[in-house]
Structures are given as C-alpha cells and as structure tokens.
Amino acid sequence: MRPFADADWPAVWAVVQDVVTAEETFPYDPAMPEGVARAMWVEQPPGLTVVAVMDGQVVGTAKMGANRPGPGSHVSTASFMVAAPARGRGVGTALCRFAVDWARRNGYAGMQFNAVVETNTSAVGLYRREGFEVIGTVPRSFRHPVHGRVGLHVMYLEFDAP
Question: How far apart, in whole angstroms, are the C-alpha atoms of residue 133 and residue 84?
C-alpha cells in the first residue's frame, strides 16, 4: 500500500473504468469521462488516495477523507476498487484496514459508507467483518444490470471515544 502518484493514474483509471462500467457496485455514471473520474477519485489533502500493489502492478485503489464538510467533518468516508484478477486475494481487506487506520490516526470519530450496493455481498461481508454495521438501506435506489432495482446500504463504524 502506498500513496497514489500521478504515474499511477493509467493503472488506476483501468480499474475505475472496469468497475464503473460493470454497473454492479458503484453508483457512478458509466459514461464518466476520464478527466471527471480522475477529479472525483484523486483526493486532495487532507484526504488521501492510495494504491495497492502486488508484484509491481496496481491491483486496487482507495480514496478517503471527510464524509461531509463543516459540522460533519469529524466522520470519515472511503471508497475502494479492486482489479478483477486480484479480487478474493485480500486486497479489499487491506485497503479497508488501511483506510480505517488512516481515519483513526487523523482523529476522525468514525467512518461512514454512504452507498454500498446490497447485492455486493463481498463488500458488505468485508465491511461487517471489519466492524461496520448497516444503519439503514435506501430501497430500490440502485439499478443493477442483473438484479434490477436493489437497495443501497449506509454502513458505519464508530471509533472508540478519545
């Protein structure tokens, strides 16, 4: 795991493009142009974007930062994408743990995921194993290409009080 560098963008864009165009796990526009994707994915400080590297190849990426500005800025959020060949190999878990550790080190009170597709059982299971809870589901709010309209979970992990 290491911070994103500009030279990583082509590999990160390939992962982002693959995940987004599948339309199964992220509520992003599959026709999103590359420049829009880069501006959306590459966080500016104090946020952070990282890449997961195996055998010299970028196999995943994460972005993290405040979930909301102002009075909501004490809660963090993060998003994760893993390249198809690396799925099931612990990359998502490593990215999630990195993001949670980063948020704790940076003084956040918790981490909130705003839109976890309920049929993305791998992600939901991973987040539950890491201590996140589903605190609500917006029914039929995501158009899945196979399952039709499915819910989006809001998931939350409260950190220990200081």
Answer: 26
Return phi, psi of residue 59, to 5°.
-115, -5
Domain containing residue 76: 2-158
Q: What is the pLDDT of residues 23-38, one digit of tens each?
A: 999 999 999 999 999 9
Q: How many domains does the chain have?
A: 1
Task: Note the residue count of the chain.
Answer: 162
- Residue-wise pLDDT for 104-113, tens only, equals 999 999 999 9
Closest CA to 152 of 112, 100, 95: 112
Q: Give me the CATH number covering residue 13.
A: 3.40.630.30
Tokens 């890491």 correspond to: 130
SS3 of 107, please? coil
| Mutual angle of helices 91-105 and 121-129, in 10-degree steps | 50
